[in-house]
Amino acid sequence: MAPPWLDVLDETIGACVTHRRPDLEARLREKRAQQLDPKLRVLVVGESKQGKSQLVNALLNAPVCAVGDDITTTVPTFVQHADTPSAALVRNSSARGSIFHTPTERIAVPIDQVTKQVSTAHAQHVVRAEIGIPRALLDNGLVLIDTPGVGDTRSAHTASTFATLMQADAVLMVSDATGELTSAEMTLLKKVMQACPNVTVVVTKIDLVPSWRAVVERNRALLARAGVPAKLIPVSSALRLRAAKTGDQRLNTESGFPELLACVQRDIVASADLLARRAVAVVASSALTQLVTPLREELTAHDSSRTAATISTLQEAQRRVDELRRRSARWQNVLNDEMADLISDVEYDLRDRTRKILREVDKTYDEADPAIGWDQFEQWLEDNLNEAATTNFAWLMERAEWVAAKVAKNFPVYREDLIPGSVLPDDLLEPASKLEKPKIEPFSVPQKLFTGLRGSYGGVLMFGLVTSLAGMPLINVISLGAGALFGGKSILDESDQRLKRRQAAAKAAAQRHVDDFFMKFSKDVRDAGRHIQRSLRNHFSTLAEELQETLLESARSAKRAVQDDQTERERRMREGRKELDKLVTLYKRVQALGGPAMELSA
Amino acid sequence: MTLDRVVWSMLQEALAVYRDSPRATAWLRSHVERYTEPVRIAVAGRSRIGKSTVVSALVGDEFTPQSSFVWYRGGTEPRAHVFSGPGRPHEVTIGRRGSRHHVETGHVDRADRVVVEWPARTLRDIVLIDTPAEATPEQVLGEADALLYLMRHVQDDDLKFLQSANDHPIARVAAVHTVAVLARADEIGAGRIDALSSAKQIARRYRRDVAVQPLCQNVVSVAGLLAVAAKTLREDEFQALRILASLGREELEDHLLSADRFVGEQFPVPMEPAVRQALLERFGIFGVRLITALIRQGFDSQVKLTGQLVQRSGLGELRDSIAIHFTERREILKARSALLALDVLFRMEPRQNARKLMADLERVVASAHDFRELRLVAALQSGRTKLPAELQAEALRLVGAEGTSPLARLGFEYEADHGELREALLDALLRWQAQAADVHAPNDHRKAAQIVVRTCEGLLPQFR
Q: What backbone phi and psi angles, to 5 degrees, belong to B128?
């Protein structure tokens, strides 16, 4: 029949599996395998240089562990029964890795070499040494484990000791008689008690210290004060080894080892079942405590934190809707202002350009005669006006895009399609009316003749009268000459006047044309601007509406989540309580295992 | 100006600046006074490690342990004062308890400090402070310039104590005040007859240990009981030991197996158990073993035995360490303590007109060549700075790791004459100047060389 502790342990392992704690499970399984193993592991621990290895040697009457004045034991040494003496080093095959769960290899070494090999520096990856010797003490499965000292500056040693501690059935805590237990040793003792409750404190080196009895008494008092239910046995390894050499029974008794051996036999070997129960009780209750704590926390804190999370999601969603509303007023303002600016700027630009053209026309027709090359002029004017229109319009487009970008920037969220592709109206730039040719009166030859004759008449008469006074006929050479002169002049005058008239007419025609053009085009531009404004506004309002809808939806779903959470949480609470009750019952059973001899602080 | 002069003038200047604050003035006065005193060495360690024993061994007379700070100063005749509370100290008598001297503090419940004036040669150069085990590092180091830290094996707790001793920024810059002592060296080897030599080996190993090295200047091993025995061995004890030694080795060995056996009823020679008990208490079982073995080996007069014991117990080495690291560097240690005190003052009572002094403090801490030398020693010894092997040895010697006299720095074993020293110095200077200017060398290498060059230049005026 399986012992009762096995059931409890198996149930605890089951609980670990349900609560998804593979680490605890692995630890408990290890413990289970170890408890089912008939071997009894007795760990020898203590601070460095307390005589741990020497104690093992003295217990076995054989120099199996390396002893020395400096730090000697660097890896745990397992001493167990074997029919013939044998020894092996166990090394990590991989260079780095933890003590457990890594592939290891065993290397057999001669038994008289093992102590040397362990302590030499090249034994880098040795994780433990295993030694088998034929001894009656070890016959019934006892394994003595010598460990590196705790609290040494080279912490790797300490780590391996604690790793070995997990496998121990019983512990011999070693402290030498040169001083009472230090606070560090008491801490260590308490730590050991947590992992393995079967501790015996061994006070060594009593041969060296005259006042060892006082030290032992003080240690007993210290243990009692700390509430540590551990036995305390004073021994002297040196005396025991000496007694073994000389066969001196009295010396052996003096060494205190008979008592220690009796204690080992009685408390460890003979009461293996009790030890197992105690050990299982401790390990299982520590595992259960670890399971219960998060569960309890989940029941109280965790769920409320989840609700808090959903509520905060809801608040966030609402906050974003408000934000969006606030921001949309802003982008609309930006759009209106910018478009107003844009249109007035563009109009001004256009006016500026047309005025420049007019000034050019004026300058030209101050000099030139419109009768000559009117066609060319017409072409030039058309070209210039076209160019002004195109530039102006291009600028309008540029500005419009810039405005779109600016509005997008003021939009509450960023999206890929935020800036509209095209904002242009399609029907634009109809040509303005044709430039009408100004009326040009030609200065024909009969007109010239008539004007010349009209002018010369005055000249002939004027000079004819003057010369007639001198007795010359009215028509003479002089008066005829003057008449010709006067005629020529009046022809010139007349043609000059005609030119002026023509120029004025041309200017007026150009002016009219440019005005027409300006009227027409500025209207177009303004229309285009309004069109752009309208399309931008449409575009952005559509986006804003979409966005608002999304946000409202998420707010609504958050609200729903809060409601759902409530019910879910209640369900989980119920389940968690059930689990917790189960674990607590198990925990009580585990504690009952320890028996009345155990004082378990849970 | 040398470091101690600079610091001295800073102390005076601080006195002037803080003359209107009675607390600061008292604090500064005490430090001015302390500045001219011998080096104060605190002896600290866990309880029952043997602090009083080591102090007794150094003083040369055995004192009973007290539960408070006990100061041992040099004096022309034995006197003791008890400082308790704010009142004036009062004198107490020094009586005897068995072979030990005992300061009769009986009627004082709790003394803050007991000051013993004692005519001893050692106390001419140093003041020893025996500290209680529960004293914190701050208490221990507040009054002391240097620290002897006692431990059995270097354990984490010990390292923590030493680290907290170096926690202050100025202390870190000048971590020059600690010698670690493996006390109870006799117990390290489980009382075997060769225990002391193996303890010495362990001390040597710790000297190279990366965790220990930056925290202390040296590690030595001392067997406290033996050291005291060496200094205070009495005629009657010597005779008793001789009688023991006259027994056969085998025969005696059985009775020296354990302390219990030694004082047991059956004993081959007629000797009162009380006498044996006394011997055991004075020398320990190991001491009795060693001394009888030594007598048998031929150290059969008290003088020969004493000499042998001083050497074997490690007391000699401890004294040398104290001499090299503390007494010879008195100025630096004193300057360091004063700088720490000034730093405390500036932080407790910061003042506008102390700005200059604070800047001075920072400059001195950062630039004092003596500290730099010591830092280089620490860096070289801990392996933080690496030099080629032959250069490393020379650099360490020149910056004074083996002693600060020109002879020791230049590595002369004998009294060399002026010219010889000058030659050696110039030679070293040229060599290290080349090292400092070597562009291919790594940076720390060149920096180290610059410090050595500066040291050589500092020595040069002495050999003009």
A: -100, 140
By CB atoms closer than 10 A (0-12, 13-18, 19+), residue A417 is exposed
Q: Is B72 helix (H, G, I), strand (E, B) or coil?
A: strand
Domain boundaries defined on chain A: 42-270, 313-586
Which residues of B are less than 8 Å from A68 in CB distance?
Answer: 198
Angle, vertex CA A380, rays to CA A378 and CA A381, nearest 5: 65
Distance CA B247, CA B66 (A): 38
Indicate the SS3 state at residue A113.
coil
CATH class of A42-270: alpha beta
Contact B54, B43 (CB under 8 A): yes
**Contact indicator for B76, B209 with CB cutoff of 8 Å:** no
Are residues A3 and A281 in contact, defined by beta-carbon separation less than 8 angstroms? no
Nearest to A236 among B46, B202, B258 (CB): B258
Asked if A69 lies within 8 A of B190 by C-beta distance, the reply is yes
- Span A405-443, pLDDT tens digits: 888 877 766 666 666 666 565 555 555 566 677 776 677
ipTM surpasses cut 0.85 = no
Residue A166's Cβ-count burial label (10 Å; 0-12, 13-18, 19+) is middle
CA distances from A323 to A331, A545, A550, B75 (A): 13, 13, 14, 86
> What is the full DSSP assignment across A56-111?
HHHHHTS--S---SS----S-EEEEE-SS-EEEEEEESSSS--SSSS-EEEEEE-T
CATH of domain A313-586: 1.20.120
Q: What are phi and psi of B116, to 5 degrees?
A: -110, 125
pLDDT digits (tens, 9 = 90+) for B32-88: 988 888 999 999 888 888 888 899 888 888 888 888 888 999 888 888 888 877 777
**A42-270 and A313-586, same CATH topology:** no
Residue among B155, B188, B280 minimizing CB distance to A69: B188
Using a CB-CB cut-off of 8 Å, the residues of chain A touching B47 are 179
Give all domains of chain B, ordered by start, each with its CATH number: 3-225+315-331 (3.40.50.300), 233-303 (no CATH), 385-463 (no CATH)
Please count the other Cβ atoms lying within 10 Å of the Cβ belonging to residue B132: 16
Mean pLDDT, chain B, rounded, equals: 83
| Residue A182 at interface with chain B, using a CB cutoff of 8 Å | yes
**Residue type, position A104, single letter:** T
Neighbours of A25 (CB within 10 A): 18
CA distance B58 to B458: 34
Provide the pairing of β-strand B94-97 with A199-204. Answer: unpaired
Chain B nearest-CA distance from A265, in A, is 26
